[in-house]
Amino acid sequence: MKQLALILACTFLALAAFPAQKPELIPYWAESDEQNTATIDHSDWQSILNTYLKEHPSGVNRFDYASLKAVPTDLKRLNTYLEKLQSTDPRDHARAEQKAYWINFYNALTVKIVVDAYPVDSIKEIHESWIPRSGPWGDVHANVVGQDLTLDNIEHGILRPIWKDERIHYAVNCASIGCPNLAKDVYTAANLDSLLDEGARAYVNHSRGVDVVDEDFIVLSSIYDWWVFDFGDSEEGVIVHLIKYADEDLGDLLRNFRGAIDYEYDWDLNQP
Q1: Which of 31, 156, 247, 251 has the most CB atoms around its CB within 10 Å?
Q2: For residue range 216-251, what is the model confidence (pLDDT) as tens digits?
Q3: Considering its fold, how many domains does the chain have in total?
């Protein structure tokens, strides 16, 4: 009984802590070549997005995993795209090109992970760990130029520590309703800032980002709790960040807000 209690306690603690994680650089990926003007081709990923990513009246973009799984040619296109990325050494490219590479890679890899396991109701059902509903983020799903990588490696060991850009949280998609939208356009060095700003504004001004219950109570996405390190490391810092991207009315409310804050997140799959 004691052993069972210990296992259950460990499971609870692991789930309670999930997914908060401070960025910690993986030194192997710290290099870049700023003289290299070459671009990385993401056209296959754009083709997949054009076909299977749909806008929805709710404001939450939906990805049709079931349809993609049913079309072998498109599934092969996705797999070929990921294989090409894994044979490309991003360190040979300039920083901006790398940033776009890693965001697109993360999103395309997440789609593959869900499609391979589909049907599922939530990405958290996909895991190799013994911890139930722990999700696939800590499992190795890629190998880039000989280096095994998890989704957590890409987000917390590469993207967050190298660029220190809180807008990355609006770009990497976890295949869930509560997540910022999977962007309709692939990221490139040329459109990075505009797409990241667009993603931030869309999420902050949607109810899953900031839900104003009344003038004394707001519900924020759990993203601002899990990753508070990147948003000023305090609720005050989060509010300052939100005001930066909020529409006029929401911004006015947040500037004067002195009420209670709660956090929520919807892990249901972002399927049609």
Answers
A1: 156
A2: 999 999 999 999 999 999 999 999 999 999 999 999
A3: 2
What is the token pair recorded at 181?
């939208």
Amino acid at 84: K
User: What's residue 21's pLDDT?
Assistant: 80
Please report whether residue 160 resides in a domain: yes
Q: Is residue 110 located within the same domain as residue 38? A: yes
Listed residue (173, 166, 247, 164) closest to 205, CA to CA: 247
At 182 the three-state DSSP class reads coil
Strand pairing category for 53-54 and 62-63:
antiparallel
Domain-located, residue 9: no
Clarify whether residues 57 and 176 are in a common domain: yes
Helix runs in 53-94, H state only: 65-69, 72-86
Whether residue 169 contacts residue 180, with contact meaning beta carbons closer than 8 Å, is answered with: yes
pTM exceeding the 0.70 threshold for the entire prediction: yes
Distance CA 7, CA 1 (A): 10
Residue 72 inside a domain? The answer is: yes
Which tokens go with 214?
A: 């009344």
Report strand pairing: 140-144 vs 147-150: antiparallel
* Residue of 69, 97, 94, 88 lying closest to 143 (CA atoms): 88
**Tokens representing residue 66 in the block:** 């079931």
Q: Is residue 114 part of a domain?
A: yes
Q: Which domain holds residue 219?
A: 210-264
